[in-house]
């Protein structure tokens, strides 16, 4: 059997190394993995225009990048923001995509969270970015430990890739302009508007923590099932949003099994 290609899109404020290093080790013998840093993230230059961060625009940007290295159809895998990008990419370029793996994204934020109005989301992320300057590395570590139930020193290396040293403090590589432009894009181009255009198989692997999001998850899963013909839903028990950190082996196993089934 040929080796399937999987193109990976990371989450907001993340990068390819941060989001996928742990499961890449478990997948690299089975798939040809292509992992990119999105615009304004990691080593990739940011856009200057807010409109360039619209999902349709980012999909076009990725199209130009991917066509330089791939000429045959591939699978898409996206975590969080990256899952939404995968959906919009498939809507725009359906002939290039064989299937989509959504890692806890593309089905909840923001429209299925009742409290998540535009103003609420913008204010929350604006505040988060304003607080993301740290004078001690230990404070960063303590915060990011709360993002997973399986912290280790390797994850500290992943976290280090998100920050740059400026003067006497650490700050995120991704700018507030980039982040707020992307949050606005979530409202301008909702994930649900892509569903009618998705004609390839979809695997959603989702978190089960925090339980406060259970209602939103149920709504999103129902939308997927009602609008996408071939969809599989898997909840990872006890995992949070960084499920590929919390349960890397289970996450990788489900991805392998699903793609192998689609390839046979």
UniProtKB/TrEMBL annotation:
Task: Please name the GO terms that the record assigns under molecular function.
Answer: hydrolase activity
Q: Which Pfam families does this entry report, sorted A to Z?
A: Abhydrolase_1 (PF00561)
AB hydrolase-1 domain mapped to chain residues: 4-248
What keywords are assigned to this protein? Hydrolase
Q: Which SUPFAM superfamilies match?
A: alpha/beta-Hydrolases (SSF53474)
What is one cellular component GO term in this UniProt entry? membrane
> What is the protein name for this chain?
Alpha/beta hydrolase
């Amino acid at each position: 059997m040929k080796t399937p290609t999987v193109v990976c899109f990371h989450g907001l404020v993340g990068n390819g190394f941060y989001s996928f290093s742990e499961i890449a080790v478990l997948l690299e013998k089975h798939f040809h993995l292509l992992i990119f840093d999105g615009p304004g993230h990691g080593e990739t230059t940011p856009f200057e225009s807010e409109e360039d961060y619209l999902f349709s625009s980012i999909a076009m940007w990725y199209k130009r990048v991917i066509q330089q290295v791939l000429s045959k159809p591939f699978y898409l895998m996206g975590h969080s923001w990256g899952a939404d990008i995968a959906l919009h990419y498939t809507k725009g370029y359906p002939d290039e995509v064989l299937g989509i793996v959504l890692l806890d994204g593309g089905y909840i934020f923001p429209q299925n969270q009742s409290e998540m109005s535009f103003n609420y989301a913008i204010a929350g992320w604006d505040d988060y970015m304003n607080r993301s300057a740290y004078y001690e590395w230990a404070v960063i570590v303590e915060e990011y430990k709360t993002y997973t139930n399986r912290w280790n020193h390797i994850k500290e290396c992943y976290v280090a890739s998100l920050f740059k040293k400026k003067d006497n403090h650490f700050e995120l590589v991704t700018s507030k302009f980039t982040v707020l432009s992307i949050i606005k894009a979530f409202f301008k181009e909702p994930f649900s508007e892509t569903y009618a255009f998705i004609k390839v198989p979809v695997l959603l692997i989702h978190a089960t923590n925090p339980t406060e999001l259970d209602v939103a998850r149920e709504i999103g899963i129902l939308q997927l099932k009602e609008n996408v013909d071939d969809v599989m839903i898997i909840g990872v028990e006890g995992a949070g949003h960084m499920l590929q950190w919390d349960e890397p082996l289970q996450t990788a196993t489900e991805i392998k099994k699903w793609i192998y089934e689609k390839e046979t």
